């Protein structure tokens, strides 16, 4: 059995429910409004926005009453309002979605900010860069992989398993104008070493030119006016560059040995003169013994005698000091001599002394005293 409600009562129930829902939503919005502030911010003076630097410049005067009341809360509210204005301006810019993220392209900056560090100096050009700029040579980037005709495959231009590797050739054709007895493999290796050395020297020269320091090199570097020492060192290196290390190189008349050149060390044979070997071992033992401190008997005796003399002199000084203290003897009675208090010195026989005529050391007062 189903109970049927009249249509009028159903409409009344729906209206009551809708009114209840509106009240709930209104209360929720009021609670959220009290918790979160609105995005609309009103300012007397419109702040200056620099979206390129994400900068907001607020020129409105501060409310001193609120600032003195709660300084931290007031400053936080001002910072929040200015940040809200900045985000409102950012959301007005055209946006795009990149991998589920909304992005915006910032405009050019309008505020010139100071640099933290000085502007870097322009890098000095190398000789090749200057030549290329003068001739208009454009640098073209070469591909990493190159076709190898022998292997019929793409291989790296340089490095391991590079294409057209000449070092893998087991036979080399001798040119028509070359010496048939010349080793072409050695010639190729020598040419490669020279290229590597030249490139390294050019690199070091570029670094030295950029840092304004001395150009490094071995031997005589190509300078305008080489010094005498540089010429001598270059001559010495040229003579030592032979296969015999300069053993059979002829010397010039009145030629002097090069200075500051290392000498080759000479080693004694493992089995040789036993007498010389014995002397060397004894010399080593003597050097080890010399490291121990030696006793100088004369110096030690002189030091002991000096200490004894110092002790004797100190004892003599102590004895003399004791005799001086006991020289005066027992104390005298008042007024009986020249040492009495407030008494004149009495008459005494003999030469004028401490007890003779005249004022004594004590002062006024009568007293008899014996003179010395």
From TrEMBL:
<dbReference type="GO" id="GO:0005730">
    <property type="term" value="C:nucleolus"/>
</dbReference>
<keyword id="KW-0539">Nucleus</keyword>
<feature type="region of interest" description="Disordered">
    <location>
        <begin position="308"/>
        <end position="372"/>
    </location>
</feature>
<comment type="function">
    <text>Involved in ribosomal large subunit assembly.</text>
</comment>
<dbReference type="Pfam" id="PF04939">
    <property type="entry name" value="RRS1"/>
</dbReference>
<dbReference type="GO" id="GO:0042273">
    <property type="term" value="P:ribosomal large subunit biogenesis"/>
</dbReference>
<feature type="compositionally biased region" description="Basic residues">
    <location>
        <begin position="319"/>
        <end position="350"/>
    </location>
</feature>
<keyword id="KW-0690">Ribosome biogenesis</keyword>
<protein>
    <recommendedName>
        <fullName>Ribosome biogenesis regulatory protein</fullName>
    </recommendedName>
</protein>
<keyword id="KW-0732">Signal</keyword>
<dbReference type="GO" id="GO:0030687">
    <property type="term" value="C:preribosome, large subunit precursor"/>
</dbReference>
<comment type="similarity">
    <text>Belongs to the RRS1 family.</text>
</comment>
<feature type="compositionally biased region" description="Gly residues">
    <location>
        <begin position="351"/>
        <end position="364"/>
    </location>
</feature>
<dbReference type="GO" id="GO:0000447">
    <property type="term" value="P:endonucleolytic cleavage in ITS1 to separate SSU-rRNA from 5.8S rRNA and LSU-rRNA from tricistronic rRNA transcript (SSU-rRNA, 5.8S rRNA, LSU-rRNA)"/>
</dbReference>
<feature type="signal peptide">
    <location>
        <begin position="1"/>
        <end position="26"/>
    </location>
</feature>
<dbReference type="InterPro" id="IPR007023">
    <property type="entry name" value="Ribosom_reg"/>
</dbReference>
